[in-house]
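All the exercises in this workshop are built on plain-text protein records. A record pairs a protein's sequence with a compact description of its fold. Backbone structure tokens are a discrete shorthand for how the chain folds in space. Once this layout is familiar, the rest of the handout is easier to follow. As an example, a complete record with its sequence and its structure tokens follows.
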Amino acid sequence: MLISIIIPVYNAGNFLERCLKSVFLQKGDNYELVIVDDCSTDNSLAVIDSCLCKYNIHHIDTKIIKKERNSGVAHTRTIGMKAAQGQYLIHVDADDYVASNYIEELEKAVCSGVHDIIVFNYKELHSSNSTFSKKVHVAVDHIDYTCQSIIGKIHNSLCNKLIKKELIDKYNLYPLSGISIFEDKSVCFRAFYHANKIKHIDCALYFYDRTTEGSVTKQGGVKQVKSALQLMNFIDVFFDKNKANVSTEIKDAIQVNKIHIYGLTLFYGTAQQLASVEILPQFSLKDIFVRSGRTIPFHYKLIVFFHQKRLRILESFTKFLFLKFKTVI
């Protein structure tokens, strides 16, 4: 089996058929489907059964795993990854779908040479019925890809990255457990760091639906801050263990990521969460406004700067202004 497609499912009945149809109607048969249901309480399982019959997919090896308890998307992805038998693994979220030439292009890329990761472009669907093409930032090497992943310049999704299973097994590249968002990033930066060869396909093969109200990526506030802080600590621990091979570029990227999370926490975190970032070192003016580039929202940079300079009135005004007019700013 060449490719394993992992689909985590939780209460996705409203849009699941669109996702499954796009996968079932692919050309070729050198792939398997691993569907993992995280104890859905809607009709998701019924939709899966209906689609299996409707699209007559006897040529595709399909595993349906029903979890005994709900444990979140990170654990659901991990179960799918461990059950997969393909040489390469990729994920498709239940509220998204793939292009008609998805498998064809992935197989072509795999057969073109020995690659640890294959990255491709995607399109975003928005509520205005508009579609925006997103071209992946093509990095120089695996260190550059690692840095772009840490600072968020590259889209940290497992849905546009085909990763060699051998690499996943060797370095235990499974999502960080216990977080409800950013679980993809916990895999991406480590995969790029350990990869030797990375290939980019310059075409959009994935459709990322930003209109689905139930999407976990729309979580905000305390939950988002909690996951971001856990991931920040996870990144620190990972590179502490590999400190002999940590470049200056990666160290700078880690600092930029911390500034981003600091700003996020100042806007949306609880007092306890804020206390956990107060122990971070003081960031210089250059760190905040120059080195961070365009990856950090400007209002995050402002509030971090005002907070560290103890300019409380300006800090409060920045927070008030953004939260009141955030649909405009």
Summary: The beta strands are 3-9, 31-37, 61-66, 88-91, 97-98, 117-125, 131-134, 161-164, 198-209. The radius of gyration is 20 Å. The longest strand covers residues 198-209. The chain has 13 helices and nine strands.
